[in-house]
Amino acid sequence: MSDLLWQKPGVAVDAQIQAFLAGDDVILDREFFLHDIAASRAHAEGLQRIGILSADELTGIAHELGTLADDFRSGTFVLDERFEDGHSAIEARLVDRLGDTGRRIHTGRSRNDQVLVATRLWLKEKLARTQALCLEAAEMALQRAGAEAGVPLPGYTHLQRAVVSSAGMWWAGWAEAFIDDSQRARDTAAWIDANPLGSAAGYGVNLALDRDHATQMLGFGRMQVAATYAQLSRGKFELAALEALGSAMLDLRRIAWDLSLFTSAEFGFVALPPEYVTGSSIMPNKRNPDVIELMRGTYASVAAAKSEIEHLLSLPSGYHRDLQVTKGALFHGFGKGLQALALLPDLLRRMQWNPDAMRAALDPSMYATDLAVDLARQGMPFRDAYRQAADPGRWEQGDPQASLAARVSPGAAGDMRLDALHARLAALR
Ligand code: ARG
């Protein structure tokens, strides 16, 4: 390992203790290494603006940071256990290539604000991806809501047959859900869009750092003003991001649940695209919906990441090394969550209904509510109408199209207000 930035003279490094301290930190730092490099570039420019670095020194640092980023992308440079963490690796590279100039890079910054700024930059990208994937899923659902509005589907409550519904209503529900999720990811990204660089170890630094310039250079919407809050918000903003992702995961879990029911022989309503189906090692007949089951299971990874971070945040103010553990949870949660979410739009585009099976599942009892409401509309008090309509002798197989068309309250089958959902979608694009 290269020299530790903080090593005390005369104290030898104990390998076992160092391994515990480092954990898998340097490997995790690969995830936002490029963001750490970008923030280092902004910090160097700030140092030049206040005379700590000369123009030539800045040119040298900027060049070496660019080369490091290229080498990392191409695999020529590997961020590994030779370094304590990604932050140390950047400084080590600059010192190696530029000598004393490299030794100036850490003036007025701390690994504490380095990790904060890299994490925020990384999360802005991940939330943008979350927003885009939810939007894609919503677009697909909305398109199919319009096209399949007239395809009857039983509506269930308690998993018991309730009223006539339609594929269009099912789709419209998911469209609105993923619009909400997309908006939540966008709003959360806007909340996270604040620059902590310059807060140093959490108490600022006795240098007139041009924080506004760094904020603008890194593309942040605003600055995190209080240096102390920059630290206090660690873990909290990761949690908010996981909550936004978790909202999409909640919907993903539920839609996967619907599909796993609907693809069973007992329902037989849906056929999945062949790539989404696997087999059994012993039962040659099996066609298993493993992909949607793993989509459903991904909720657990995101929820576990949230829970791990929540447990870690039981801390007084200021930096504590416990906070390092939030990174693994965050990366794992987003890695799994986005991998699952990325499969959703194509699945929604290609899954197929079996309208005959759906229609066959509509029985006369499912028109009883329509009957009660019809009687009430004609003037009978609803509770009396309800009693009359509860009599199975009055149940008749109805016309699902008529039942759906009569549902004219906004957002219901006859009036799904898809135009309003299209407008929300357009605003999020
Ligand atoms: N790997 C560390 C983390 O994620 C970086 C900050 C280290 N700061 C410190 N004071 N030891 O928290």
UniProtKB/TrEMBL annotation:
Pathway: Amino-acid biosynthesis; L-arginine biosynthesis; L-arginine from L-ornithine and carbamoyl phosphate: step 3/3. It is an enzyme of class 4 (lyase). The keyword Cytoplasm applies. Its main location: cytoplasm. PROSITE patterns: FUMARATE_LYASES. It is found in: Cytoplasm. GO terms for molecular function: argininosuccinate lyase activity. The keyword Kinase does not apply. NCBIfam families: argH. This is Argininosuccinate lyase. It comes from Luteimonas soli. The gene is argH.
